[in-house]
């Protein structure tokens, strides 16, 4: 009996050690990427999801795309182009150690990407049935609770009716609730729903009778021959270097002068809780090696700061209003 308990203890110890090592690796990469970015206000939830997925299913360097490598945010455009140029000149990689022969891939770069890539001649199965995808897929559920111990002024004197009509009074409790349920098969299929309640917002009462203040859901598919990907629900579009449209954060921009061009991922599912920088509707990405067509439609409300002007002397009306800026805090308290 003691041997059985010893085996069980060793099993959980090994799993705990592996989990800690995995988290340490991903956390180190996220810190590295954060240091390289000029924009400090970066939502790293999507990045963590990508690295976590690629840790389980590494990218095959002999059968990949620019978009897949760019998603890691660990490689510059020059390094990615050099990899494809090497394959074009000398053929597919025989071993991962060949990366050392690339001029712009130093040991630091190789160490950063090594847990998320592999080299093999055995390609993943491109077409599988929905039943097989569900069988091989992964179900995930995350829950998080946060609360600041020190009470803020907005929660004081709740019985004072004079404060309840002002912006200084928070009608909800100071708790933050976050939950996410998601099913995914590699990076080809993703179905999920995310919900969040911010501190100070009401929960299943008052202005928030529907429960959480923010809900997000999506259905996403990627990997067809001509149907590259499609999304229903919440998604992000990244095209045109941000001059045309670039929803989400520009993770490809850094202080490195050789990496001025941002790495785009035309269509991706949205799984974060930023309530502004995403689209809600449907999108379709079609194309082949020579031609690409991205169609999308989106409609959703966005918070704005309203400014009022006294226009009685000009138009005869008392006040006129306009939107001065977009409010990206996501707070409704």
List keywords for this structure.
disordered N terminus, two-stranded parallel ribbon, alpha+beta, single chain, globular, 333 residues, 7 helices
Summarize the structure.
The chain is built from seven helices and 13 strands. It is of the alpha+beta class.
Layout of secondary structure:
Layout: H1 2-36, H2 45-56, E1 59-60, H3 66-71, H4 77-90, H5 107-113, E2 117-118, H6 130-136, E3 138-147, E4 175-185, E5 189-197, E6 214-222, E7 227-239, E8 245-246, E9 267-269, E10 279-287, E11 292-298, E12 304-310, H7 312-315, E13 319-326
Parallel strand pairs: 1-2
Antiparallel strand pairs: 3-4, 4-5, 5-6, 6-7, 7-8, 7-9, 7-10, 10-11, 12-13
What would your notes on this structure say?
The chain is of the alpha+beta class and 333 residues long. It is built from 7 helices and 13 strands. Strands 3, 4, 5, 6, 7, 8, 9, 10 and 11 form a 9-stranded antiparallel sheet that branches. A hairpin with a 5-residue loop joins β7 (227-239) and β8 (245-246). Mean pLDDT is 79; it is low at 1-17.
Helix percent band: 25-40%
**What is the N-to-C succession of helices and strands?**
HHEHHHEHEEEEEEEEEEHE
Q: What is the tally of beta strands? A: 13
Q: How widely separated are the two ends?
A: 57 Å
Shape: globular
Separate helix tally: 7
Strand content: 25-35%
Global structural class: alpha+beta
Low-confidence stretches: 1-17
Our Rg estimate from Cα atoms comes to 24 Å
Q: Residue-averaged pLDDT, rounded? A: 79
- Summarize the biggest pleated sheet: 9 strands, antiparallel
């Amino acid at each position: 009996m003691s041997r059985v308990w010893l085996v069980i203890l060793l099993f959980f110890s090994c799993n705990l050690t592996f989990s800690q090592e995995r988290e340490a690796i991903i956390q180190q990469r996220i810190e590295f990427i954060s240091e390289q970015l000029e924009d400090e206000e970066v939502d790293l939830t999507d990045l963590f999801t990508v690295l976590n997925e690629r840790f389980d299913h590494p990218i095959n360097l002999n059968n990949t795309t620019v978009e897949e490598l760019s998603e890691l945010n660990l490689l510059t455009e020059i390094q990615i182009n050099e990899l494809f140029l090497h394959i074009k000149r000398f053929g597919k990689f025989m071993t991962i150690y060949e990366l050392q022969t690339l001029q712009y891939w130093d040991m630091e770069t190789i160490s950063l990407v090594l847990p998320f890539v592999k080299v093999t001649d055995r390609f993943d199965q491109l077409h599988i049935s929905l039943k097989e995808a569900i069988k091989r897929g992964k179900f995930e559920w995350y829950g998080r609770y946060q609360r600041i111990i020190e009470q803020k002024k907005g929660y004081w004197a709740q019985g004072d009716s004079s404060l309840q009509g002002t912006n200084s009074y928070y009608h909800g409790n100071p708790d933050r609730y976050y939950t996410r349920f998601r099913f995914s098969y590699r990076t080809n299929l993703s179905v999920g729903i995310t919900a969040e309640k911010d501190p100070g917002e009401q929960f299943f009462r008052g202005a928030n009778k529907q429960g959480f203040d923010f809900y997000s859901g999506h259905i996403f598919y990627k990997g067809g021959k001509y149907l590259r990907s499609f999304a229903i629900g919440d998604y992000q579009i990244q095209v045109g270097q941000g001059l045309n449209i670039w929803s989400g954060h520009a993770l490809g921009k850094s202080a490195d002068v050789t990496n001025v061009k941002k790495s785009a991922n035309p269509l991706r599912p949205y799984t974060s809780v930023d309530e502004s920088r995403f689209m809600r509707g449907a999108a379709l990405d079609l194309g082949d090696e020579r031609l690409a067509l991205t169609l999308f439609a989106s409609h959703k409300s966005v918070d704005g700061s309203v400014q009022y002007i006294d226009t009685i002397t000009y138009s005869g009306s008392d006040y006129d209003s306009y939107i001065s800026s977009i409010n990206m805090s996501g707070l409704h308290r």
